[in-house]
């Protein structure tokens, strides 16, 4: 292995996209092309878009971009794995077509991983942004030095985020373990991250270097929530298998975490009867670890303090103006 390959490995950014040319794709592409790291390839996998995606990408005229267009629309997760299979880089980032990375994201990750070519994943902190790019919240990656068991528990207790935009994978390791894959392809991202971290280790970078976009006004169906519950249990069982020493602690924390996660999804069901039925189903599925009543209480309490914070900030602003 040459010194250049060790110090400056090729990194692949895979961007699966579908009909986002007039939405967020431009911003995502700018963030990928604007990296301070030079040894980079960008794969754009167009899932048979019917908008101007191809024209947008062709207009980039960048030698680092490799564009693929599927002749027909395929399942989204198949497109994720297509990006992975096309990757020539030693490291791989799957960047959704509405997320962003900071200009020094790749460079920071590669500097942190020098001398550790077999590492499974490299993680940074992440911010959550809205449809206009406004920061809703952000969280540093506070898991440096933690064992696999501690990483699992930190995530289950909502003290760290496992977003794809903040994670670079070892390409060969990710391919060896089957890429992105879960029963319903809903927790396939977290499963891949945890699998590589547990088997091959990880590098943790505290700084916030990536942006995950959260969309408002979502709706879902009861059948979809059923699938989320099944994927949740599959992921939790796999986590327990990967961390047997603290299995009982992880299982207990996971039941609460996934109950709340799926209550959040159930709350978006439009039909009130189906919504009520799904809340009861989730309560039973996750062994009554977290009740719907407690979920609604915590949700209302959080909303109250959020409103209170906005009022305080508004009053403080008015006070400064009058002074």
Task: Give structural notes.
The protein is of the alpha/beta class. It folds into two domains: 8-213, Spore Coat Polysaccharide Biosynthesis Protein SpsA, Chain A; 222-290, no CATH class. It has helices at residues 3-7, 25-33, 53-58, 76-86, 105-112, 148-156, 171-176, 188-200, 222-242, 247-266, 272-285, 292-322; strands spanning 11-17, 40-46, 65-69, 91-94, 100-101, 121-129, 135-139, 167-170, 202-213. Strands 1, 2, 3, 4, 5, 6, 7, 8 and 9 form a nine-stranded mixed β-sheet that branches. A hairpin with a 5-residue loop joins strand 6 and strand 7 (135-139). The radius of gyration is 21 Å and the shape is globular. It starts with a helix and ends with a helix. Residues 1-5 have low confidence and may be disordered.
Features:
single chain; 323 residues; alpha/beta; globular
CATH superfamily of the largest domain: Spore Coat Polysaccharide Biosynthesis Protein SpsA, Chain A
Helical region count? 12
Total individual domains: 2
CATH class identity of the largest domain: Alpha Beta
Largest sheet: 9 strands, mixed
Low-confidence stretches: 1-5
Q: How large is the radius of gyration?
A: 21 Å
The sequence of SSEs as H and E is HEHEHEHEEHEEHEHHEHHHH
Shape: globular
Mean pLDDT: 93
Assigned CATH architecture of the largest domain: Alpha-Beta Complex
CATH topology type of the largest domain: Spore Coat Polysaccharide Biosynthesis Protein SpsA, Chain A
Roughly how many Å apart are the termini?
A: 65 Å
Q: Give the helix level as a range of percent.
A: 40-55%
């Amino acid at each position: 292995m040459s010194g250049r390959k060790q110090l400056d490995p090729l990194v692949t950014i895979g961007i699966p996209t579908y009909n986002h040319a007039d939405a967020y794709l431009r911003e995502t592409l700018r963030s990928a092309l604007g990296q301070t790291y030079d040894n980079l390839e960008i794969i754009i996998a167009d899932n048979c878009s019917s908008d101007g995606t191809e024209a947008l990408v062709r207009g980039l005229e960048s030698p680092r971009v490799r564009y693929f267009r599927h002749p027909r629309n395929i399942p989204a997760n198949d497109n994720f794995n297509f990006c992975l299979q096309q990757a020539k880089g030693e490291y791989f980032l799957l960047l959704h077509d509405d997320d962003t990375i900071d200009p020094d994201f790749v460079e920071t990750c590669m500097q942190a991983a020098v001398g550790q070519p077999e590492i499974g994943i490299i993680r940074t902190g992440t911010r959550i942004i809205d449809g206009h790019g406004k920061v809703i919240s952000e969280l540093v990656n506070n898991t440096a030095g933690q064992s696999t068991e501690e990483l699992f528990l930190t995530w289950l207790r909502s003290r760290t985020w496992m977003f794809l935009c903040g994670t670079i994978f070892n390409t060969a390791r990710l391919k060896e373990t089957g890429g992105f894959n879960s029963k319903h392809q809903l927790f396939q991202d977290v499963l891949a991250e945890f699998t590589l971290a547990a088997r091959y280790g990880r590098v943790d970078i505290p700084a916030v270097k990536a942006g995950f976009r959260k969309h408002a006004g979502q709706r879902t169906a009861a059948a979809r929530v059923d699938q989320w519950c099944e994927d949740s249990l599959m992921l939790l069982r796999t986590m327990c298998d990967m961390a047997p020493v603290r299995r009982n602690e992880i299982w207990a924390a996971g039941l609460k975490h996934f109950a709340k996660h799926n209550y959040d999804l159930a709350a978006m069901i439009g039909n009130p009867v189906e919504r009520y039925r799904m809340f009861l189903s989730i309560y039973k599925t996750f062994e009554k670890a977290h009740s719907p009543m407690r979920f609604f209480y915590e949700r209302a309490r959080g909303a109250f303090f959020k409103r209170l914070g906005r009022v305080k900030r508004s009053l403080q602003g008015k006070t400064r103006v009058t002074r």
